[in-house]
Each structure stands twice: as C-alpha cells, then as structure tokens.
Write a structure and sequence with these properties.
Largest sheet: 3 strands, antiparallel
Shape: elongated
Number of strands: 6
Number of helices: 0
Helix content: under 10%
Radius of gyration: 15 Å
Order of helices and strands: EEEEEE
Strand content: 25-35%
Strand order of the largest sheet: 2-1-3
Length: 83
C-alpha cells in the first residue's frame, strides 16, 4: 500500500483511496471501515446527515446507535441492552 493512503474495506473487498478520490456508502448498505496502516498523515473528509432518528449499525461489534431528538447518541447491543 502506498504510504499514507487509507484503504476502504467493504464486503466487496478493499480499495486504496488516493488523493482526490471520493467513496460513497449508502444507508443500509454494506458494512465498511477505513484503515491507515502507516505513520504518515492523511486527511479524510467525511460528510453525512446527522438528524434526529439517524441510526447506525456496527454488525461486527454488536453495537447499534441512534440519535435521539435531543441530539444525543444512544448505544445498545442488538438485543437492546444499553452500553
């Protein structure tokens, strides 16, 4: 992997993100994460909508998060047990 460039991991595989590239991930789509495996700096700009009722699922970690009307995130296990 080139120095300082992050890699996007999805169910479809991995892709090195180079300067100027854009990657989009849809709500309810494949689980994904980014990794930077070097000591060099890189910049990532993440853009998203964080409105009340927004939710996210971390299937590999058994964590769900939902943003309430007060703007606070609440984290639970899939069975609803709070963290």
């Amino acid at each position: 992997m080139p120095d300082g460039e992050p890699t996007l991991f999805t169910d479809a595989g991995e892709m090195i993100l180079r300067p100027g590239m854009v990657a989009g991930v849809t709500a309810g789509g494949s689980a994904h994460h980014l990794e930077k495996r070097t000591d060099r700096d890189c910049a990532i700009l993440e853009i998203g909508d964080r409105t009340a009722g927004d939710a996210v699922d971390y299937p590999d970690d058994d964590i769900q998060a939902m943003r309430g009307g007060d703007g606070q995130w609440r984290y639970t296990a899939r069975d609803g047990t709070p963290y």
